[in-house]
Structures are given as C-alpha cells and as structure tokens.
Amino acid sequence: MFNWVQKFADWLIYAAFQIERESRLGEALNFFVYDTIKILILLFVIVFLMGIVNAYFPVEKLKTFLHKKKLYGLEHFFASLFGAVTPFCSCSSVPLFIGFVQGGIPLGVTFSFLITSPLVNEIAIAMFLGMFGVKATLIYAGSGILLGTVGGWILGKFNLEPLLSKWVQKVLENAESRDAEYEGAKVTLRDRLPQISREAWGIVQSVFIYVIAGIGIGAAMHGYVPENFFSEYLGSGEWWTVPLAVILAVPMYANAAAIIPVIEVFVAKGVPLGTAIAFMMATVGLSIPEGTLLKKVMSWNLIAIFFGIVTLFIILSGYLFNIFL
C-alpha cells in the first residue's frame, strides 16, 4: 500500500506539478505528500484496530497484570523489542503511541515502544550491517533496545499520566463510558464497527493539523539542509562534538533507513562513528516534527521530560560508541 502512496507522490510532484526530481523543492514536497498520506492512513487503521481490541480484549486485566506483577522490567523490554521490529519513523510511531494510551497500557511501557521504534528496525539493521559490519550493528541494535527499556522504565517511575494532554484524558474518559455502555450487553462486532469507525475518524480529524505542521517542518529540513553542513563541524572528535551532534540533529527529520546512508558519508569524511550514530539516533528519535505531533497527546512539560531523558541517553551512548567502536 505504501508503495502505491510513494508512486502517487512521485506522480503528483514530478509529473502533475512538473517539479524536477532532483531539486530540493521536489524532494521536500514529495516527502511531505508521502509522509502525510502514510501517517494519516496509519493513524486511522491503528486507532480503528485498537477500538476493536478495546471492545473485545480484557484491557483492564492486562493493565492490572502490568501494574501488579513483578516483571522486573521485562514489560519494558518487550515493548522496546516490539518497537525494534516495527518499521516506523518517529512520526509514524505517534499513532501507535495514541493507540497504546487509549488501550490503557502503562505510560512507561508505552514510552519504551516510542523510544525504540524509530531508532531500530529490520531495514536499518540490514543497511547498518552492510555498511559498518557485525560489531557495530550489534552495538547499535542492542543499545537502541536498551535505551528504550531503561528510558521507559525511568519515565514510568515519574507517574507522568497527569501530564498527558486534556484531549487524551477526554479520549480515555470516552473509552471508559463506551465500555460501561456495552458492559453486560451482547453487542456484535458488526454493531460496534460504525461507532469505532466514527471514533477513529474523529481522532484523525483532531490531530490532522499537527500531522501537517510536523511533516511540513520535516519536509523542509529533509529537502533544504545540506549534509556537508553537519560533517564540517562534527569531525574533530572533541568531547563537545557528541552533544553538538544531538543538538544539530533535533531539527532534522528522517527515518533510520533514510539517514544511515548520510551517516556513512559522515564517517567517510572523518566523523567518529559514535558521534555519527548519536546524530542518527537524535534525528530519528528526537525530531521537532515528532514533538509537534506529540503536543496533541502530551503537555509541554511531559514533552520536555521525554526529550530530556532521551537526549541524555543518546549523548551517553555516543560517548560509549566512540570508546568501543
């Protein structure tokens, strides 16, 4: 399906609007059209499926299990592992985050998924393996999963649920009232589908402007920021280059598979591999577009806490990469 979306974006920008394929404007607009359609489709489908799950799956039992059982962090590990096998960028992960929160999954566990999902996926691992070898790939994949596991566990200890946006609180209240309405009544899936569809479409409409704004920022960065700008300032190997790499990467937006070839160029131009990986992780996991989308589901305080902890972990990872790689 997404291949079809890419073909449509190519046709619209390069054929219908007749913008040159290799131009910065063409790349930015193509990126914008493709990601907008993809994320809106993902958002509707995921929220719709979560609506079905909420209707028939005993979510309360799952929440009780996750809260009361002593899993010693394994719930965060499994959420992080699930994030690693889902091929989503940071903005594509937000719809799943909304679905998880709506489904009553503990916020810390949900954060474990949100952290790891854009950082590690099977496509990125395959490309990383071919470009940098087995050792670097294992360290990259393992650190991404570890980052999600530990980061989600720490965030879960802060009891951050009150910092979710009022919109999310309303979504959760509506879900509870709907479940109470259906409780004790034998309602078929066919009967519930119209209501589930309306709720899913309502959520898509609610976040639409955030999707457009976030992807618009990402498209501009994707098309107009030259890679040489970064490699020029990150190649010295000084201690400050790792945090600088993370700071410079935040305005960027790309998925791991798209940024890895850029990282290869960085390394070829003398940027230490650990610094380059820190830049990559910040690009895919701490983008301004992601923050724009998350504003719909989080308060600014919660976004700042989330970004702050992940930033610290990525910087530490960059230093460790430079030591061991």
Features:
0% strand, mainly alpha, 325 residues
Account of the protein in words:
- With 325 residues, the chain is an all-alpha fold.
- The chain contains 16 helices and no strands.
- The longest helix is centred in the middle third of the chain and has 36 residues, at 189-224.
- Helices cover 79% and strands 0% of the residues.
Chart the SSEs and their pairings.
Blueprint: H1 2-16, H2 24-56, H3 59-68, H4 74-85, H5 90-102, H6 107-119, H7 122-132, H8 134-156, H9 166-182, H10 189-224, H11 228-234, H12 241-249, H13 256-268, H14 273-285, H15 288-294, H16 300-324
Helix pairs in contact: 1-2, 2-5, 2-10, 4-6, 4-8, 5-6, 6-8, 6-14, 7-8, 7-13, 8-16, 10-15, 12-14, 13-14, 14-16
**H and E string:** HHHHHHHHHHHHHHHH
Into which percent range does the helicity of residues fall? over 70%
Mean pLDDT: 78
- Derived from helix and strand composition plus strand pairing, the structural class reads mainly alpha
Q: How many domains would you count in the coordinates?
A: 1
Biggest sheet, in brief?
A: none
How would you concisely characterize the structure shown here?
The chain contains 16 helices and no strands. With 325 residues, it is an all-alpha fold.
